Hints:
By secondary structure, the chain is an alpha/beta fold. 31% of the residues lie in helices and 19% in strands.
Amino acid sequence: xxxxxxxxxxxxxxxxxxxxxxxxxxxxxxxxxxxxxxxxxxxxxxxxxxxxxxxxxxxxxxxxxxxxxxxxxxxxxxxxxxxxxxxxxxxxxxxxxxxxxxxxxxxxxxxxxxxxxxxxxxxxxxxxxxxxxxxxxxxxxxxxxxxxxxxxxxxxxxxxxxxxxxxxxxxxxxxxxxxxxxxxxxxxxxxxxxxxxxxxxxxxxxxxxxxxxxxxxxxxxxxxxxxxxxxxxxxxxxxxxxxxxxxxxxxxxxxxxxxxxxxxxxxxxxxxxxxxxxxxxxxxxxxxxxxxxxxxxxxxxxxxxxxxxxxxxxxxxxxxxxxxxxxxxxxxxxxxxxxxxxxxxxxxxxxxxxxxxxxxxxxxxxxxxxxxxxxx
Length: 376
């Protein structure tokens, strides 16, 4: 039996744009098809033609819904992919909202560029894909449960293992059968970290001939932070903002980080560490993502904490731009959780106290908060 071949089309020499093609005896299986994110140079890679023929791909298997792993699937389908796209049900549910959101961003950015180009008499551009392209792509998704074998053409089969990274995230075990002993491969996808509130620990299967493993943060020892320590830090910052009786604005990624914050804030209020106060989720994507997390709460490590938070009278969601603007008129202390997590877009930019609760790339402090003091 011939050895399989793996082609790397992204996330090699860069962090984003994950896309691998496993080729074996005429069968081509794609693992992820992610969008390049970061600098202008990296983003421009999303507009280039694929380095393979989409119609020649026999299967697509998706590790999880983050856009750097899933974000070019609508472009792939638009370019002619006819193969099924396999993912866990939770990943499919998240992709249903995240790919639509990504499409709206593409359309909005191109619309702004085209207005500028018209004034300069330059050629009009097209978005990478549209909301309709994203809708069509979703029709090719097929759900597969964790630890359940799915047969593929060409003597291949695969199964998902919980990667502990995001709701629905998975590592992919692929087995190639033939006349000799089977060949087993593992594509890790993004894994962990271990201290997430809503995620269980990653499952670690063994015995593979080949492992294609995530290496982001591979040169660092990430210290585990207990739930109590994390909440103590959050409590301290909220109390400082509360003493000023203004608004605490928390830039947050819409998917998962917002839901973790809701659960933690509600725990602190319930135990009396913080006073009850309005908590407003000012992000349409975060609102829709929270609905998905609520549907899958039984599969989450601390899903009951999130469900309890969502039943609280202090939590509410804005639905329209008018409701978002009305927050400027609110009096008294309140907390606003808004996208995006790096303050580059969304409804994030108009309040006074900020608490960053995730990674912020180089330049965010200088570009968005030129007079800010780093307190934690």
